[in-house]
Amino acid sequence: MRVEISPIQAVDDPVICNIIRTVGAEYGAVGEGFGPADPEVMNMSRYYLPEQASLYLIARLDGEIVGGCGIAPFNNSKTICELRKLFLLPRARGLGIGKKLTGQCLDFAQAAGFKQCYLDTLANMDSAIGLYQKLGFAHLSSPLAGTIHGGCDVWMLKNLVPVVQNKM
Fold this sequence. Notes:
Blueprint: E1 3-7, H1 13-26, H2 44-47, E2 55-61, E3 64-73, E4 80-88, H3 97-111, E5 116-121, H4 126-134, E6 138-140, E7 154-159
Parallel strand pairs: 4-5
Antiparallel strand pairs: 1-2, 2-3, 3-4, 5-7, 6-7
């Protein structure tokens, strides 16, 4: 089993679009208010550009694209980014690929100067929520103002800057 993570290229757009929509449908994320319906899904490589403080990574398992994950500013914020569209095909789950993708996205976000990372998801995406909790995301009682994913029912936030304890 060989896993490769790399930034998305235009040639990857149709494959990742299909994965996002297929996996989204598996979990009921269909239609307006859900990530798979976002306009960017058709051409992910055009929307995630490092010069715009955004990145979308794809994962290949033994040479075949099996999923991806992205990071981008939340509502053009300079301090809050959003973890976006972590979707993996069933055969790629439970192998640490989601953790690897998310970790690299969070590293990129920290290097880009973001202070917090937001995400929204669905309560039935148990394994993803478990991953996010292990990575330090905390549950919010409501979405951040300005989210376009009104169909989501789980909202989480992670501080990207370590909290320094005052030892007086």
